[in-house]
Amino acid sequence: MSNYTIDYANCTLCEECIEACPFDAIEIVDDKVEINAACKACGICVDTCPEGVIQPVEDEREAVNKDEYSDVLVFAEQLEGEIHPVTYELMGKGRELADKIDQELHVILLGHNLTDQTDEILAHGADKVYVYDQEELHHYNVQPYATAIEDCIKRTKPTIVLIGATSIGRSLAPRVATRFRTGLTADCTILDVRENTDLVQTRPAFGGNIMARILTTRHRPQMATMRYKVMEPIPRVENPTGEVVEFSVSKEKLETRAKICEITKKPDVESIEDADVIVAVGRGIREEKDLEMAQELADLLGGKLGTTRPLIEKGWTEHKQQIGLSGRTVRPELIITLGISGAVQFVAGMKNSENIFAVNNDPEANIFDVAHYGVVGDLYEVLPRLIEKIKNGENILAS
Q1: pLDDT in tens for each of the 399 residues of the chain?
Q2: Which keywords belong to this entry (predicted)?
Q3: Is 167 domain-assigned?
């Protein structure tokens, strides 16, 4: 649909708009000027038309009253009494946003027997914790959880809602957004807020080749999900002053056709996201058997082996080891990258690591732009020497 209307009765087909358009979005079809999908709504054609026959379409969509919405609401994800660490990262960013617009940080907690979890959230500085402590919410079920969050949003009218981009968050957030006919920006890497409370949501797009900035200017609440290990967690406070507000939803509204008959726990597997040390390998590894050297280095450092997407596509490593936009986001104390060029898709998943040690034979490789330490050389020469130095008890960063 075009952003402009054209008064064909008074159009003289002078073609000045065609010459002025920088996007080649205007053409003559069947003796009529038409604006095609290449239009970027820059307005140059409106200013150029000597007859004034091109006019912008009036936007008749109804906008909400932003003054009716306030505060930042964070969804506290918990499983069997354990608060997911992404909650505290969301609270850290939520506090930053709330302070910028002089509003409060609120948290919603769903489950059963939640006293300890509530105390922990208050200890991290939440101004209010909305608690839905009901037996029907003991186990995660997307429909009842979405209903409870919908109820909380209707009661409190937050201007911003933040949810973790976990397996639970990715199923829950879009359902809540749909119920309010509002936007949802997934996997944000940067969040900021304007004075008018518009949330500036930034996320990678087109495979990480651009960073898209997204705003929800006409609707509230504004919703975004953020990956684990992207933001700084909120610190504990000495004298918490927040309050607990107990809400509930009727059992009838929490009913669902899906019934939990039995729960089989998934085996505990250490995630690469929680590793303090990671050795990451990329295209520079020539053969699958050579991964054993990288694994040996990881074992010596008490770390995990990570990888880039090309090695997964070859079938050499598992997807759970992938770092990057289509894999995991990590934030270890030390990451050693071997034969990785530093494509934006990979860097986006590890750039916040405390110490980045890069090995690549190309001095112009992008990985050196984010690395704190770098070695220009063949990993097949450097890696054995690193292993030897560590076995000898030497400090690899000092040498």
Answers
A1: 467 899 999 999 999 999 999 889 999 999 999 999 888 888 889 989 999 999 988 766 678 899 999 999 999 999 888 899 999 999 999 999 999 999 999 999 999 998 889 999 999 999 999 999 999 999 899 999 999 999 999 999 999 999 999 999 999 999 999 999 999 999 998 999 999 999 999 988 776 677 788 999 889 999 999 999 889 999 999 999 999 999 999 999 998 877 778 778 777 667 888 899 999 999 999 999 999 999 999 999 999 999 999 999 999 999 889 998 878 889 999 999 999 999 888 998 898 899 999 999 999 999 999 999 999 999 999 999 999 988 888 766 555
A2: FAD, Flavoprotein, Iron, Iron-sulfur, Metal-binding
A3: yes
Q: Would you say 155 is a known binding-site residue?
A: no
- 103 annotated as ligand-binding: no
213 and 89 both lie in a single domain? yes
Q: What is the DSSP letter of 71?
A: S
Residue 323 annotated as lining a ligand binding site: yes
Residue 22's CATH number: 3.30.70.20
CA atoms of 325 and 100, how far apart (whole Å)? 29
Number of H helices and E strands in the chain, helices first, is: 12, 21
Q: Do 372 and 287 share a structural domain?
A: yes
* Residue 339 among known ligand-binding residues: no
Per the CB < 8 A criterion, the answer to whether 321 and 272 are in contact is yes
DSSP label of 29: E
Q: Total structural domains in the chain?
A: 3
Residues 51, 70, single domain; the answer is no
Is 291 one of the annotated binding-site residues?
Answer: no
Residue 134, annotated ligand binder? Answer: no
